[in-house]
Amino acid sequence: MKIQARASHVSLMNRNIIHQRWRRFLCLVVLIAGIALSLPIKADENTPIHIVEAFHVTLLTTMQSAKALGYKGRYGKLAPVIERRFHLPLMVQVATGSYWKKATEKQRDLLVGAFSKISIGTYASRFTGYSGQTFVTLGRRDGPQQTILVKTKIANPSGKDVKLTYVTRLIKGTWRIIDVLLDTGISELAVRRSEYRRILKSKGIDGLISTLDGKAAALRKAATG
After folding, report:
1. What is the mean pLDDT of residues 198-219?
2. Residue 140: beta bridge partners?
């Protein structure tokens, strides 16, 4: 009986020790959690890398559901993100150069609208499916004229990666994309500038607006059949 009572007493002591240790562990967990919750959360989303990666997230999800969305759905999903992350008015202003200064307020509004449609439409018609691609951020470096270049790549399972460099600039306190450099180093905005200048010389601002509207309509028609 004494042996049994002693064994019971030891067992009870062990349980008490375990309970005490468990309580101390729980208190420590609560303390750590309290400290973590009390720390300020730093969520600086206004950085060159963030805006590029945010655009890539939307682009990737659009690609993954491209078939179900169709052209119209892809356009609708990409439009608000492109308009937020890119500075389309500045891009078309740069692309048209001195002609922008000569344009009326109404012509500028129509030009920005046409440029937006062709820019969004190009992405909606270009990214029409998904086969395991991922977007990888490679880093950032200072660019000319107070810009920051964000280097990225589209990693393809086939091994044929595509490098893209986004040119970003701080505009009125917000970082925006103002150009994209292809893996060959060619600036998309420079290509458009050259193309637009030829149209502007022969057809003027109204002619360029009409041409861009026509191209946007052609993209939509080709994608929707």
Report:
1. 96
2. 150
pTM (predicted TM-score): 0.78
Burial of residue 78 (number of CB atoms within 10 Å: 0-12, 13-18, 19+): buried
Domain boundaries, the chain: 1-41, 49-224
Superfamily the domain 49-224 falls into:
Tgt2/MlaC (3.10.450.710)
In the chain the first and final C-alpha atoms are separated, in Å, by 92
pLDDT tens for each residue of 5-29: 444 444 444 445 444 544 443 333 3
Q: Using CB atoms within 10 Å of the CB of residue 137, give its burial: 0 to 12 exposed, 13 to 18 middle, 19+ buried.
A: middle
Question: Across the beta sheet with 162-171, what order do the strands follow?
Answer: 134-142, 147-155, 162-171, 174-181
pLDDT at 20: 54
Which of 134, 133, 139, 123 is CA-nearest to residue 49? 139
Other Cβ atoms within 10 Å of 5 Cβ, number:
9
Q: E strands, 113-205, where?
A: 134-142, 147-155, 162-171, 174-181
Six-digit token string for 106: 């109404």
- For tokens 């002619």, name the residue: 207
pLDDT above 70 as % of the chain: 80
The residue that leads in pLDDT, 171 or 36, is: 171
Contacts of 105 (CB under 8 A, 6+ apart): none
Query: Kind of pairing, strands 174-181 and 134-142?
Result: unpaired
Rounded Cα–Cα distance for residues 208 and 90 (Å): 16
